[in-house]
Specification:
The chain has 193 residues and is α+β, with helices and mostly antiparallel strands. The protein has helices at residues 11-23, 42-47, 67-74, 85-114, 125-142, 155-164, 178-191, and strands at residues 2-6, 27-31, 55-57, 63-65. A four-stranded mixed β-sheet has the order 2-1-3-4, covered by helices on one side. The protein is globular, with a radius of gyration of 17 Å.
Length: 193
């Protein structure tokens, strides 16, 4: 059975949980609270030297980290990874973009507000500016399209919905992004979130 080390408040961890649930895979969830240093303890670092969640211990004992690598591994041979090489590359393009241009702003602002207890005026303006730029980029991509890539949900949709659906918790108002809001509902329905 798989073992998943994750913090249930983390969108990166939830991506893995949602996909495992959709796939009806048996797994053991080990709640790993990042706010109390659980990922910095020697026993955790022995599994994942990067000291981050999620981390998955496979049935054979090998460990895999980084949420998008994990969902890529778990999503093999499912419809969530396009068969067409170009569409598959576009899915990966979104997955890389999510970790570089979306999550560092939307997730960090949310973490600082929700778990760090910062007031809105204490959040670095650059986080808010770049988070809105990410949402605007998604709005353009989703205007007239149901999914980020192709005609059905892919891992790109799963990865990006994790923090987009809770962006309001970081003070990102989604009302200017109607295509994004509609997409959130479609992705939640597709993955049973």
């Amino acid at each position: 059975m798989l073992t998943v080390y994750g913090d249930i408040r983390s969108g990166n961890c939830l991506k893995v949980k949602w996909l495992l649930d959709w796939l009806k895979r048996d797994y053991r969830w080990v709640e790993t609270d990042v706010t109390v240093g659980a990922t910095r303890r020697p026993e955790f670092l022995a599994r994942n030297p990067a000291g981050q969640v999620p981390a998955v211990v496979l049935e054979d004992g090998r460990v895999l980290a980084q949420s998008n690598a994990i969902i890529g591994f778990l999503g093999e041979e499912t419809a969530f990874i396009p068969g067409d090489p170009y569409d598959r590359a576009r899915m990966y393009e979104w997955l890389f973009w999510e970790q570089y241009s979306h999550e560092p702003y939307i997730a960090v602002a949310r973490f600082q507000r929700l778990l760090g207890g910062k007031r809105a005026d204490e959040i670095e303006p650059r986080l808010m500016e770049r988070g809105h730029a990410a949402l605007a980029r998604m709005e353009v991509a989703l205007t007239g399209a149901d999914w980020l890539v192709g005609d059905g949900p892919t891992l790109a949709d799963l990865a990006l919905v994790a923090y987009t659906r809770v962006a309001h918790e970081g003070d990102f108002d989604l009302s200017p992004y109607p295509s994004v809001r509609g997409w959130i509902g479609r992705v939640e329905g597709a993955f049973g979130i």
